[in-house]
Amino acid sequence: MLIRTLTKKERESVYYDRILTDVPPNEIKTFPYLESLLLQGVYRCLGLFDGARLMGYAYFSCLPDEQIEILDFFAVCAENRDIGVGGVFLRLLTDMERGVHVPVGEVEDPDYAEGEEKKTRVRRIAFYERNGWHDTGVRCVLGHFITRIFSPESPPADGVRDALRKIYLATYGEDWLKNKIRIL
Fold first, then answer.
1. d(CA 109, CA 95)
2. SS3 letters for 36-88?
3. Are β-strands 68-76 and 102-108 bridged in parallel, bridged antiparallel, or unpaired?
4. Of 173, 163, 155, which is closest to residue 63 (Cα–Cα)?
5. pLDDT number for residue 65
6. Domains of the chain
7. How far is CA 172 from the centre of its chain?
8. Nearest one of 184, 180, 176, 163 to 42, comparing CA atoms
């Protein structure tokens, strides 16, 4: 399996055929907006391929001069789930980024959920931990979601907070950063 940058045609296909069904509606950015972030150099779109077959995708919010980057979307295509592809993909991404970027991921905090949603959040955390990622101790309030920040490395919490502020500012703008995002 190989990870590579998605072409525009592939990004469009992933967006309309995958993201719109894989990602909760309140977390979806529009395709033109994602493309504008890509053109600004603050977004990267990668795919995991087995030959020509797309197995999964990972989208990062990033800044050219910032080592830390946010794993914005990470998903395995539905037909490839529950067979270990997600773990392989995350470990390949981690290895690929080592020494170049420090990926961090936002995982919704299970302490603020009940029932099936709580089970889903606990399962996501277990997935990251199983694949060598750990809780950095940093928390974010994104709109009405409280997230825990995970990483395969151990960046200093203050460095993570500073990088998140910069990336959120570039991605969402000052109004969002001031009014809808809190980094704890």
1. 26
2. HHHHCCCEEEEEEEECCEEEEEEEEECCCCCCEEEEEEEEECHHHCCCCHHHH
3. parallel
4. 163
5. 87
6. 2-183 (3.40.630.30)
7. 15
8. 163
Two tokens, residue 26: 């309140």
- Among candidate residues 100, 92, 127, the one with its CA nearest the CA of residue 3: 92
φ and ψ of 11, to 5 deg: -60, -40
Which pLDDT score, from 0 to 100, does residue 27 have? 84
Chain-centre distance for alpha carbon 9:
21
Tokens 């800044």 locate to: 63
Q: What is the per-residue pLDDT across 16-30, written as a single tens digit (0 to 9) for each?
A: 999 999 888 888 899
What count of residues does the chain have? 184
State the Cα–Cα distance between residues 88 and 130, nearest whole angstrom: 11
Closest CA to 14 of 67, 56, 66, 50: 56
Between the alpha carbon of residue 144 and those of residues 54, 112, 126, 180, the distances in Å are 33, 10, 23, 8
The three-state secondary structure class of 136 is: strand
Q: How confident is the model at residue 99 (pLDDT cuts 50, 70, 90)?
A: confident
What does the pLDDT average to over 83-89?
94
Strands (E) across 63-173 are located at: 68-76, 102-108, 134-142, 145-151
